[in-house]
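Risk mitigation, structural track. In case the binding assays with adenosine monophosphate fail to produce interpretable data, a predicted complex structure has been prepared as a fallback.
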Amino acid sequence: MRNLILFGPPGAGKGTQSAFLVAHYNLVHLSTGDIFRANIKGETELGKLAQSYMNQGKLVPDDVTIGMLEAEVNKHPEAAGFIFDGFPRTTAQAQALDTFLESQGETISAMLALEVPEDELKSRLVARAATSGRADDADPAVIQKRIDVYNAETAPVADHYRALEKYHGIDGVGSIEDITARLTSAIGA
Ligand code: AMP
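Fallback model:
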């Protein structure tokens, strides 16, 4: 199996690049943000719980997020691999993911980390608010909170996969096609 983590701060282009990678490598795309938003739309208990955290730019608690992610993986026993988008976001999530995959005889193949300067992230998110319909894109204070949470809680996840020699830093500035080419060359390597 090919199990990829597409990593990076909010606005780095994870969702955009996932669309190409899932088709090209025949992977199942698991975006925890998308799954939470689907639950909010469906007015599920999980959605109600997640919404208050998301609207404030905070992380949904680890136990909830990890349980949800494992259930989603288990829905795809025939998958050729997964692309994890927006997960893991804490070192506890990374450890849980590694242990969960190991219990199935699997492992993370690579972490692909899109690197984008903070000013560029903010302008992309402000522009995305016009079309995304996401409350967390529409408020500059929530955007700042998401970036702060990324720096404090999520950035250390890169060190976890660096230590395992699975980390690939990818320049996330440029045309969508150029960034896709950088990703495919890192995956091929
Ligand atoms: P995203 O679509 O990846 O930008 O995620 C939107 C929001 O969903 C985040 O700001 C968090 O509130 C929540 N979320 C998504 N993924 C996770 C995760 N792995 N752990 C905790 N919260 C998450």
